[in-house]
Amino acid sequence: MAHMVKDVDNLVQGVQTFGFSETLIYYETLIWDLWQFMAEGQGFGMGLGLIAASFISRGLFAPIIIYSQTVGMKMKLL
């Protein structure tokens, strides 16, 4: 891992203490841990673990993506 968060306890509780970059690092760590769990914990291997982790992360962010696309389409109609 390239970066270490300054205060892990605050990020785990959902409190943003030092800015937006620490939140991105936290989500990057979550997705990395999900990939490792799928690869080693579930026995998928690195390739299938990456594919499974990407589907799960896309599924989690799908409502945000759909909302932003509908807002963009509404703005285009204006």
Notable characteristics:
single chain, mainly alpha, 3 helices, 77% helix
Indicate the topology.
Blueprint: H1 8-12, H2 20-41, H3 45-77
Could you characterize the architecture of this molecule?
The protein is mainly α. Helix content is 77%, strand content 0%. It contains three helices and no strands. Helix 2 packs across helix 3. The mean pLDDT is 81.
- Rg over CA atoms, rounded to whole Å, is 16 Å
Assembly annotation: single chain
Strand runs, count? 0
Supply the number of helical segments.
Answer: 3
Question: Largest sheet, described in full?
Answer: none
Strand coverage percent: under 5%
In short:
The protein contains 3 helices and no strands. With 78 residues, the chain is mostly helical.
